[in-house]
Amino acid sequence: MEIIWGIFIFYMIANLAIGIYSQSKVSSSADYLLAGRRIGLLMTAGTLAATEIGGGSTVGVAAKAYGSWGLSAGWYVTAAGLGIILVSFIAPKLRRAMATTMPEIIGRRFGRPSYIITSLLSLFANLALAGVQITASATIISVLTGLSQNTGILISGIILVLYTTVGGMWSVTLTDIIHFFVLIIGFALAVPFAIHNAGGWTHIVSQLPPEQLGFTKVGWKTIIGLVIMYFMTFSTGQEAVQRYYAAKNEKTAVWGSVLCGALMALYSFVPAILGLVALAVYPQINPNDAIATVSIHLTPSLIAGLVMAAVISATLSAGSGDLLGAATVFTKDIWQQYVHKNMTDKEIVKFSKITVFIFGIIAIAVSMYSKQIIPMLVFAFTMRSTGPFAAFILGLNWKGATPYAGIWSIILGTVAGLYWQYINEPYGIMAIIFGSIVSCVTFIIVVWIEKMLHHDPAPPALR
């Protein structure tokens, strides 16, 4: 246990040290919020992967494999990889826009009301997502130390807030690269040890209900729905698009996205296998504790330490991206636009740091209140994507889009998606899918009506 503790403490100190070092690279708001728009291919792929492989893709997938999804829980990450590959088709336009936030693009295209609503949806969603990552980190700390989950939330939340506040996007990007390699190495080494020490794969299979090994147990409708959900949420999510804005050019944005998707697909079923091992050997534990329990009891201390660091890597990477994304939206899209229009560059950096710190405290409170992982992820994805999706994608690609199409599609799509989730997604149709359909249909109908009535001309298309 001393070795596990040593690796864990060293890793946390390293994260804080990188945050302090990154502060020396920040000389402008573009450096703090977008790493100077100069990250290369491998850094773009690594930071995207580390940001999107978070608590849901590690602790959450293992918990789902332990529970109702079985082996097919791995599709949760595979779908994410496919979704981010699809985003590569619009990545050039994202980078070409030279924006800082996703709401900024909608505001340029559809005006102030759409801008404000999208900013608020993005802000609240990112705070919820940051809370999810803190919860996932806390499960590891709780199992590792025996401390209460609330104490684990405080510890993981404080570390996350400190290194994100100090270094901004440079800190996030540099730590993301380290996190990603620790994640891949830690999990890759853990699987064979866990299987061997659990009695071998044949023994594990004999202890499991046969349906838990179904490769598509979750169902193709859910798998396809997850791919669509991830395409939507990655193309509209601030923590993802902020990395496309930070890429040094359009080509880097495209191939960084493709490489990220491939890396995620390769990793996807690893946590699901660990979840099945946990179910076979420890059938009475909390599903969220599956990875930590297997790592501590079925792998050597050095490997267990790497796995603990790997999971913390995933959750901190995703959480820092979410936290910085929320702060960026609030600073650029709300405060600078409507409260203090004439902020200097130094004021933007200072205000952004203060905002990251305050939002970090709010994210800790969200984690304390919710203590959920995948359900909270899906709720946040639905909130930020269902309404703005049509306005964002069609606004980027359709020159004939009209002003009112943006605002009405955002409002009706968001209401429809949240209501559909509230009534528990009838007919097995995911809320984010239902809401996006309403959003797209509304957008097209309003454009048609405006054209028919010869209302205001279409706003200028983004170049």
UniProtKB/TrEMBL annotation:
Keywords on record: Membrane, Transmembrane, Transmembrane helix, Transport
Location within or outside the cell: Membrane
Pfam families on file: SSF
Top-rank taxon, per record: Bacteria
NCBIfam families assigned to the protein according to its UniProt record, in alphabetical order: sss
Stated family: Belongs to the sodium:solute symporter (SSF) (TC 2.A.21) family.
Name of the protein this chain belongs to: SSS family solute:Na+ symporter
Lineage: Bacteria, Bacillati, Bacillota, Negativicutes, Selenomonadales
